[in-house]
Write a structure and sequence with these properties.
The protein is mainly alpha-helical and 370 residues long. Helices cover 67% and strands 3% of the residues. The protein has a two-stranded antiparallel ribbon. The longest helix is centred in the first third of the chain and has 35 residues. It is globular, with a radius of gyration of 23 Å.
Length: 370
């Protein structure tokens, strides 16, 4: 499931409870002394390749994503909070998205230690860290879908759902997203724990349930965390592009480029990981024949593609904020306010105040009768 994205790579490669389904299946109970291999219809595959890859590269990759994601999303959150009195609905979604990405990357140092050595933080932090990661994984995808739907209503139907409704409507929407994500993370609070592989005397933070539970949670991840948000974004932005193509002008072209990049970035970052997990699930369900060589390479592929998915957290600030002139103006003004207060009345932003962010440009397109 999602905690496979957190470096489940070693545990299932070393434990002797290995596995009716495949070498990455979580054991029912790490504390059991398994005195027989009769449980297994297929001998465990050697995992030297994937284990060495994980121990060597995952801590480095996680650390890189941690630094980039924390700096980028932290900057977005600071700038938006400095203008919180005038935030639009899209800005509010962006703020929650930045918070989700920050909380997600904050868990990566723990998983870096888990991949390099073992889990040394106990069962309580295991539950919290795993659930926190998954809550924000789902929140990031669903908030992207909310942003696309908000833009779709504004541009295609010229409906300002949040601007014309109660001021708390956008906040209520965000709270509903967080509540849904918390519901999705309940299995992590219940089944995650620090489990010991007695044979190798190593502890890992893993789910403690049978393979069928892992398959169900994988399906939830695929549908709620990827396919549903992707379909919403693809539909909304396809309709937006259809409207914008009827217009002319450089500002409209910038908006068109952005909405295309948004969907492409999300799909490119997460599709490879989900394809790898789909192949592993088909192997679990015995739709694909067991093959140790293929499975060893698939374990490495999962490690690589999960890190590619994490990189989406670093792309979000650039795609949704830094490309917008309005955001750059806000950041510039914040720097002036913090560093050169005496020059506030004498400095102008590097871009004209008539420019808005790309999202505001698309809003103007809808209001101009396009």
């Amino acid at each position: 499931m999602l905690l496979e994205m957190l470096g489940q790579h070693q545990v299932f490669q070393t434990t002797d409870f290995e596995f009716i389904m495949n070498e990455t299946s979580p054991p029912f109970d790490y504390e059991l002394d398994n005195k027989s291999d009769t449980c297994c219809t297929f001998p465990p595959c050697p995992q030297d390749l994937s284990q060495k890859f994980d121990q060597t590269f995952l801590p480095v990759l996680y650390s890189l994503v941690f630094v980039l994601g924390l700096l980028g999303n932290g900057a977005v959150a600071v700038v938006l909070l400095s203008q919180r009195a005038t935030l639009s609905s899209t800005d509010t979604f962006l703020l929650h998205l930045a918070v989700a990405d920050v909380l997600l990357v904050l868990t990566l140092p723990l998983w870096a230690v888990d991949a390099a050595i073992q889990w040394v933080f106990g069962s309580g932090l295991c539950k919290v860290a795993g659930a926190l990661f998954n809550i924000n994984f789902y929140a990031g995808a669903l908030l992207l879908a909310c942003i696309s739907f908000d833009r779709y209503l504004s541009i295609v139907h010229a409906t300002q759902l949040y601007r014309r409704g109660p001021p708390a409507r956008v906040t209520l929407t965000c709270l509903m997203v967080w509540g849904l994500c918390l519901l999705f993370a309940l299995p992590d609070f219940i089944f995650l724990s620090a489990l010991q592989d007695k044979r190798h005397k190593v502890t890992y933070c893993r789910h403690n349930f049978p393979p069928v539970g892992r398959t169900v949670l994988r399906g939830l991840q695929l549908v709620a965390g990827f396919l549903l948000p992707l379909l919403v974004m693809a539909y909304c932005y396809a309709r937006i592009l259809a409207v914008l193509l009827l217009s002319r002008g450089q500002r409209r072209l910038r908006a068109m480029r952005l909405v295309v990049v948004v969907v492409v970035a999300f799909a490119l970052c997460w599709s490879p990981y989900h394809l790898v997990v789909l192949v592993e699930t088909l192997t679990d369900l015995e739709f694909l024949a067991r093959d140790c060589n293929r499975e060893s390479h698939m374990n490495v592929a999962r490690s690589v593609t999960e890190c590619l998915g994490y990189m989406h957290c670093c792309l979000n600030p650039m795609l949704y904020a830094f490309v917008g002139a309005k955001f750059r103006e806000r950041m510039w003004l914040l720097f002036v306010r913090l560093g050169c207060p005496e020059q506030r009345q004498h400095q102008r932003p590097p871009s004209s105040s008539r420019w808005e962010s790309s999202w505001s440009e698309t809003t103007e397109a809808s209001n101009s009768g396009l």
